[in-house]
Write a structure and sequence with these properties.
12 helices
Amino acid sequence: MKSTKIYRYLSKIKGNKKFFAGAFTVAFIYFISIIGSFILPSEYYRTGSFEPALPPNTKNFMGTDCLGRDILAQLFRGIQNSYKIGFIAATLGTIIGATIGFISGYYGGFIDKVINVIVDVFLSVPSLLFLILIAALISGGVTVETMALIICITNWSWPARQVRAQAMSLKRREFVYLSKLSGMGSMEIIVKELMPHMFQWMGANFINAFLSAVLTEAGLSILGLGPQRDVTLGVMIYWALSYSAIFRGMWWWIFPPVVTLIIVFFSLYILHVGLDEIINPKSKKV
């Protein structure tokens, strides 16, 4: 019975072109960045390795920046670090939000009221302003991992609110009453009985949170609050703007990270829409 359900789900995934197009593009970009990092020597990434401000040529396919670094080598590292931030922030945000939502919705009462107040506070505070303040207050510079944790601070509240609503509905179902009668504890019921009903939703939320984290990191980096020692797509745009790449005609410096960011955004969006159609077929427009 369980294998039949999994087979139907896989069949839906197989028949959804949006899901496959988005997933393939996102994976392909990351795969190319990994291969490229192995092919290009590490010296390409260092300051002063080449003549500054070189346009694209046979050795530097995307040219060099004002510090004599290869743009393509930076792009490969930037993609990996942006993905890393998105993955960490989306994973932690989804897990923390879902766990809090299940506890709040299942237990109810005083616990639910306290958690609700905390969630309302995080939902009402402008997230970008909050993140700018935190990033600016961190001394010693922001790393890729620190940036992911900063973004995660505001990434859990929406999942918590949505999971809470679902948990309040699920806990009144017959299978939950049967689980209680069989002697299962509250946390055991949450993990074994309630969570499996939300796995599909958690997958869709993960992709949405991933997309949001990548864009948030780019926004903070463009404002000068991104990682100082590591390069990301946002940091590349920040340096290009700081050195007036547009006004100096260095299109090869500003375009690669911007175009890559746009492609990643649309790929993740299509992936999210495809997964949403698989989970909720009624949302699919004919």
